[in-house]
Amino acid sequence: MADVAVHEPTVHGDGPDDAHGDGHGDAHGTHYSSTGLSNNKLGMWLFLGSECLLFGGLISTYMLYRGRHSQNLGPDQLWDIPFTSSSSFVLLMSSLTMVLAVSAAKRGDDRNTKLWLSITALLGSLFVAGQVYEFTTFYREGLGYTTSLFSSSFYTLTGFHGVHVSVGIIMLMALVGMITKDRIHGDKAEVVELIGLYWHFVDIVWILIFTLVYLIPA
Amino acid sequence: MTGDPAHDGTAADTHASPASHDSSHGLTDMGYVQVAVALAIITGLEVWASYTDWLGPAFLPILLVLMIVKFFSVVLFFMHLRFDSKIFSALFYAGLFLAVGVYIVALFTFHFFDG
After folding, report:
1. Where do the structural domains in chain B lie, given as residue ranges?
2. For residue B52, what are the contacts with CB-CB under 8 A and spacing of at least 6?
3. How many Cα atoms occupy the beta-carbon half-sphere of A217 within 13 Å?
4. DSSP letter at A67?
5. Same structural domain for residues A136 and A32?
6. pTM for the full model?
7. Does residue A88 share a domain with residue A30?
8. Distances (CA, A) of A91 to A33, A99, A168, A211
9. pLDDT per residue over B22-40, tens digit each?
10. Residue A66 DSSP label
């Protein structure tokens, strides 16, 4: 593990290559821990680990309460699988555009980085729009937030996920603006990668939600 | 350490070309597209499985396996966890396993009090 930690930054060209060799920073202004790993990246992975607990709790709650609904307002009557599958496909493809943005950022290609980030934000917005449409449809059919334990746990889980996607879109657009105005002080590729990690996390949570909530029959 | 000055972690490595960068830290762009295509196909299989009765009792295990494959494809390739430091993996998997543990405990607790 230590071997990986020491070698990893140097191979990628973003490691602790500071002139003093104290492992505290580099020419990009990125700070590194004593392991040779970026503090920012360590912090992001720690955050994502804690987010697993948040969504783990929400998914668990839904799975426990999914059968607690009235006869005519359950998953079997409400779900529109073709529509949700399309939304899932859109979010999945946004992960591809995000990783292409990270790849372009590592090449120092600002133009393509901004392009892929903008497409990712657009795909994310499409997903959120689909979720708003879905929520509106369910509400019109009589499924309010407090209608049943099923509805409360469903809206809480998917709503929290939707908020995370929305926050991701704001971060992506802010990043595009900052790259355009050259306002990023430090390692630009790492900043794009960190936001990419957050975006991919939002995607993997949806992979779980799509299967566990929508595809597995109640 | 390879003994090769170009790969021994010296300053020379910090100026690796974009091509070597891609191959040493994750996939190439075409590799990412291939992973995305695989993910799209698996999603299609999941949806098909949910509409057919052909799989019978194997439906649920197959669906869960497909979900896990998709999950780890994104984590390992798109999030670079396969190529990054094991410390990042430890941080993420600690949260993940704890979350799964919490679910299992909650499930058993509910069944215990229901019974």
Report:
1. 5-84, 85-115
2. none
3. 10
4. T
5. no
6. 0.83
7. no
8. 34, 13, 12, 14
9. 445 678 999 999 999 999 9
10. T
Handedness of CA A173, B89, A157, A84 (dihedral sign): positive
What span, in angstroms and rounded, lies between the C-alpha atoms of A118 and A104? 13
Q: Side chain identity at B69, as an amino acid letter?
A: V
Which position has the token pair 């396996």? B65
Q: What is the number of CB-based contacts under 8 A between chain A and chain B? A: 164
Dihedral sign for Cα B33, A82, B57, A216, please: positive
Say how many domains are in chain A.
2
Integer Cα distance of B53 and A94 in angstroms: 31
Q: Which residues of chain B lie closer than 8 angstroms to A81, CB-CB?
A: 47, 50-51
Q: Which residue has the tokens 């929400």?
A: A58
Do residues A109 and A7 both lie within one domain?
A: no
Residues A117 and A22 in one domain: no
Residue range A175-202, pLDDT digits in tens: 999 999 988 888 889 999 999 999 999 9
In angstroms, the separation between the Cα of residue B55 and the nearest Cα of chain A is 13
Looking at this predicted complex, what is its ipTM? Answer: 0.83
User: H helices within chain B, ranges in order?
Assistant: 18-24, 29-51, 59-73, 86-114
